[in-house]
Specification:
It contains 5 helices and 4 strands, in the order βαβααβαβα. By secondary structure, the protein is α/β, with parallel strands linked by helices.
């Protein structure tokens, strides 16, 4: 059986990951499931069990499972913790869990002025505190 591909989009909130994921789905010559960390967090219930790492791990395991059965997926997530790229951080966890999958890691960026405009437009008034990693 053919292994499914994973496109892993990471970037700050408002950088354009979701827009990019949807465009990739439209333009790709084969189907891709869109797996959003925001949606995983919204659908975990009851909320008392929600911990960011649990939702993140669920997202990664879903992508890994899809890949194992030949289904392509696009991961849409954000890493903002300072230890993200260190051993034990979220990105390191992704590398470990997806190490045997065909995955393309993409860091999505956006100029600060455009990011402020987008965040203001959608009502996120704390934009200045979230402009960089």
């Amino acid at each position: 059986m053919k292994t499914g591909k994973i496109i892993y989009l990471n970037g700050i909130s408002g950088a354009g990951k979701t827009t990019l994921a949807k465009k990739l789905q439209e333009q790709a010559s084969e189907p891709f499931y869109w797996l959003s960390l925001d949606i995983f967090c919204q659908t975990l219930s009851p909320k008392k069990f929600l911990r960011g790492y649990d939702a993140f791990t669920s997202l990664l395991n879903t992508a890994k499972f899809y890949s194992s059965i030949g289904v392509n997926s696009i991961i849409d997530t954000v890493h903002i913790q300072k230890d993200t790229y260190e051993k034990g951080g979220l990105f390191h966890a992704a590398l470990q869990l997806l190490n045997d999958c065909p995955v393309l890691f993409v860091h999505v960026t956006c100029p600060p002025d455009e990011l402020r405009r987008r965040k203001t437009e959608r009502g996120d008034y704390d934009a200045d505190n979230q402009l960089s990693f």
